[in-house]
């Protein structure tokens, strides 16, 4: 994926650096924005993850585009094949979150952010789609704006 990001940046004449590989991810559900993650929210999110039962599935990211933004437009890989699997996993997470009182944003556009640039890229197919079998999911504590992602828990997919 990092190599694909470099190719797409060059192909579209973008100038900013790609995001570090350690930060590439797909956000399925967000438990909120906090300056410091409260323990009760962390424990609730861990409880949610432990209840999810979804079978592994194949996902393919085969399109690239820019999301609208100010002067930092995200260049993202978008999903074709596997959208149903990601949606099922998200629905299971959001349902479990609601049961214990956690809320998540209603909108869901599966993507991987590769970089941010001033220039916008129209949606296009990528020459080399990226495909893998999703076998697990991770609870990530993202320190917003600081490029830090801390893995707090991980669960295998089993359905």
Quick rundown:
This protein has helices spanning 2-11, 39-51, 83-99, and strands at residues 57-66, 73-79, 111-117, 124-134, 136-143, 148-156. It is α+β, with helices and mostly antiparallel strands and 159 residues long. The strands form two sheets. Strands 3-2-1-4 form a four-stranded antiparallel sheet.
Task: Describe it.
By secondary structure, the protein is α+β, with helices and mostly antiparallel strands. The chain has one domain (2-156): Alpha-Beta Complex (Cyclic Phosphodiesterase, Chain: A). It is 25% helix and 33% strand. The strands form two sheets. Strands 3-2-1-4 form a four-stranded antiparallel sheet. Strands 5-6 form a two-stranded antiparallel sheet. The chain is built from three helices and six strands, in the order H-H-E-E-H-E-E-E-E. The chain has helices spanning 2-11, 39-51, 83-99, and strands spanning 57-66, 73-79, 111-117, 124-134, 136-143, 148-156.
